[in-house]
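TL;DR need structure tokens for one chain.
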Amino acid sequence: SFGDFFHLDEMQKEFKGLNMITMEEYLTRYAMTGKLIDPSTGEALKPPNNIVNWNNERKRPLYGYLGTVGYVPTDWNPMQCVLAFPATSDPDNLTELQHKMTKINEGKKPRSTDYIGKPTPVDAPFIDRLRENL
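>> reply
TL;DR here they are.
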């Protein structure tokens, strides 16, 4: 799972504003109590078949449901964004992260085809690994 690669539970301890819950907890707490609204009807909408634990389930119905009740800004394109966390909560680390993004954007834009058969090593410098994901 995602948690196998990104230790979000540890990040939650480090970053005070980063509070995470599982999808099951989210659906139980918000969807099943009528707090998620279908904007086209204004009515509360529960998840497909009232399922809150989607382990071992086909996810397509869940994704459709979340797309209906969730808010996605019209100017946001997930294919043009990347999420990155600074190494610590120290403001200097955020500045360093922003500097690396600026450096990447000033250079030649990478293409996914640039990495076919030659992925960036997992122990490569952060800027190289970030560039590959853009």
